[in-house]
Input
Amino acid sequence: MRDIIVDMEYELKLCKDVLEPQAVAHGELGASAVRAMYVVSGALRLDADGATATLGANSGWHNTGVLRAAAGPEHTVALRWELGLAGASPGKLAGDGVASEVLLSAKMALDRSESWLLRCDRVDFPRGGVALRHTHRGGGIRCLLFGSIEIETKGARYRHGPLEAWFEAGPDPVYATASASEATAFARVMILPRSLLGKSSISYVNPEDLAKPKSQRYQVFVDAPVELP
Output
């Protein structure tokens, strides 16, 4: 008899890690399945289960397991997303000159019988740029890097400033308006169907918007298949 696999409740968490110059931090992923890191400013040398990377500002990395992070000669700010079972404590980085805080967490129902993808990218807007009303094929947490942005969804409007985070479930239509006076950008991690590897996740609510010029620009740092716990 075939087992019936139902959706399980997971939780995506976004943490901000701040490291003083030359600080060394250690952290363990624990019950979480996957992690992505993005360096906002400064630089990090990372080691996770033997895999190493050196990240400068505006770069990202995906890894699992025990993490060791060392800052360079500058004050460093990094964003860290972790996906695990709902209710699990987020892994924290600890050490002298190291501070971690959870900016946002959001629950997500994911089917363990399906194949999933973690995407970490950055979206940039010019002054007055907009993202026409759209949906995505998966949920994710965004964090504003600079500028400001107004998000219209489900009959409400929300304005976000630098290092403020928000969750988009995916199927709920969103219209985004960036600052009229300065450039705006946010970083995000989305959990998507693996069939979207290397492909856009966006769909426009109004078919005629598909052919219109788009003001947003994308940088993809991580596009990696992941296994859920």
